[in-house]
Amino acid sequence: MRLSRYFLPLLKETPAEAEIVSHRLMLRAGMVRQSSAGIYVWLPLGLKVLQKIEQIVREEQNRAGALEVLMPTVQSAELWHESGRYDAYGPEMLRISDRHDREMLYGPTNEEQITDIFRRHVKSYKDLPLNLYQIQWKFRDEIRPRFGVMRGREFLMKDNYSFDLDHDGAVRSYNAMFAAYLRTFSRLGLRAIPMKADTGPIGGDLSHEFIILAPTGESAVFFDRGFDDLDPLADQSDDPDAATLHAIRERWTSLYAATDEVHDAAACPVPAERLVTGRGIEVGHIFNFGTKYSEPMGATVQGPDGQMVPVQMGSYGIGISRLVGAVIEASHDDAGIVWPASVAPFDGGLINLRAGDERCTGVCDDVYAKLGVLGLDVLYDDTAERPGAKFAAMDLIGLPWSLTIGPRGLDQGVVELKDRASGEKAEISLESALARIA
Ligand code: ATP
Ligand code: MG
Ligand code: MG
Ligand code: MG
Predict the structure, then answer these.
(1) Complex ipTM, two decimals?
(2) Given the CA of residue 108, which atom of ligand 1 is nearest to it?
(3) 50, 126, 158, 172 - which has most CB atoms within 10 Å?
(4) Whose alpha carbon is nearest atom 1 of ligand 1?
(5) 66 CA distance to ligand 1 centroid (A)?
């Protein structure tokens, strides 16, 4: 992409309304603009990152055997009356009435909708297990939308729902998602720690929040130092069996980890010298809730013995738009964002230091074409801006590497290749630069 043809409205000033670094950087880097409180426009650069995260989440869901569907954002209130949540949900739910005065709502989550789909089409244990997911916008009328996309009112979530005949099956589905989440966050370059979450009246121990550490996180977190030694990709074979999945969850839940919601200092089993305290951001949440929805909504299946039983369900969420901010919270420096390669909006940048110089521009155009042939998606700064501004912009948007070509370097037969994360710069021949990039 030639910068001269792109839409990248960078901000020079630090926006006063942004309290945390990811929000500031997303505004300054031209990724998002607020439309109204907690509701954002995604500009081209931000949308690219959002879509990259979405795709990684999608690949890991598919890999774990979940099937993608797409449910509407606007739902009829009827199903929510059936489950009893229409009244229980409170003011976070945006309630709408249509022209016929029918109660509608902008979905904050989709348990009711998916349970309805299930009960209409699945009648037998032979069709189980089933796991359906979607990546869709949600609306929650948060009392205090803040931190940019991290606590928006409209936000993009991956939500999925598992259906099993019995508790053992439900545990297997839970473990499969647990393992998939470890893989997902690791691919996003994040260190996520599963922490025991409150199960409320459902009870049991099958609810975990996946938390990444950041000083600006909204929850205080307490966890065993032993998490440092765990590898999220260990034993993550293709098509793992139930025992392997169980072992993965065991390994990650045998160590203590809890947010302030459930942490009890008096009952904490971790000795002080092993206990790490900090702050964290909830990026995912998995929850087995048994028959909470299937019972009131009559989602039953026939078991092998001919008996009809309410189906066992779980739900699993990942905050995709929140993750854009969370990745930045975890990876930035004074100059700007430092994208992990897996979610970077472009593979790298190419800077023409002297757009008015015919030879230099010829070389840059040629390199840009070559990088395209190599299959790389490159942001090519072909504008007439001064060099300092170009470097600052590249650092701000945080592409993994940038290749700078100028007339003086060309005289000496060198270009400059910079690694954004380490800041290391190498003056090398164009050939070796291309070899390193490819
Ligand atoms: P929080 O505790 O941050 O309010 P939650 O527990 O209400 O989140 P869940 O119902 O568990 O959220 O939804 C699944 C995921 O959706 C969360 O783990 C989070 O990543 C994301 N999410 C929830 N609320 C928001 C929001 N207002 N803005 C952006 N992402 C959100
Ligand atoms: Mg919430
Ligand atoms: Mg929460
Ligand atoms: Mg939650």
Answers:
(1) 0.99
(2) 10
(3) 158
(4) 282
(5) 21
Using CA positions, which residue lies closest to atom 3 of ligand 1?
282
Span 405-422, pLDDT tens digits: 999 999 999 999 999 999
Residues of the chain with pLDDT under 50: none
Q: How far, in Å, CA of 218 to CA of 232, rounded?
A: 24
Question: Which residue, judged by its Cα, is nearest atom 18 of ligand 1?
Answer: 284
> Is this structure's pTM higher than 0.90?
yes
Ligand nearest to the CA of 315: 1
* Res 279: pLDDT: 96
Pocket of ligand 1 (CB under 6 A): 140, 142, 151-152, 155, 157, 282-285, 317, 319, 321-322
